[in-house]
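Our consortium's second objective concerns turning raw sequence data into structural hypotheses that experimental partners can test. To show how far this objective has progressed, the report includes one record in full. It was chosen at random from the queue rather than selected for favorable results. The single chain below, 166 residues long, was entered without modification.
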Amino acid sequence: MNSIQIKKNSFLRLLETTDAQELFEAVHRNRERLRAWMPWVDGTQSAQDTLSFIQETIKGQATGDYQFAIIHDACIVGVIGFVRTDAANRSAMIGYWNDAQAEGQGLITLATQSILKIGFNEMGLNRIVIRAQPSNTKSCAVPKRLGFTSEGLEKQAELLNGEFVD
């Protein structure tokens, strides 16, 4: 899959093993902010952990779980991708995060628009879901901006930092 331009100086490309150090540094610099929303943060303690994640994402491409680096001004500023792709039911979920330095630039919304096109047009998906904790207003704003329909609240659906959250 080729890189996908999302705005001037910003594009998406599939994660590569050579991204491990830079991606780990982005996670580390945003650790406390991401920890509030992402259950995987505490398990990411080194560039080796990040490399293992990237290697798993490369394997996941076989089932449609594509993970893209969000690149802005030649730096990785986040990740977006399909998770929990279900080929039999032609559905997937989108997950994303970005670096604090990239907030407010519309990168997540533009990246989401781009991978929605991939999902529906190239992968033949019928349903794409975005899940976000209700208190994560910035993350919840993305599907609203893109015209998603809210289907409800999954009560205590995820274990995060030792507590179940909606």
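The partners drew two points from this record. The mean pLDDT is 96. Residues 7 and 119 are 20 Å apart (CA to CA). Both points have been shared with the crystallography group to help prioritize constructs.
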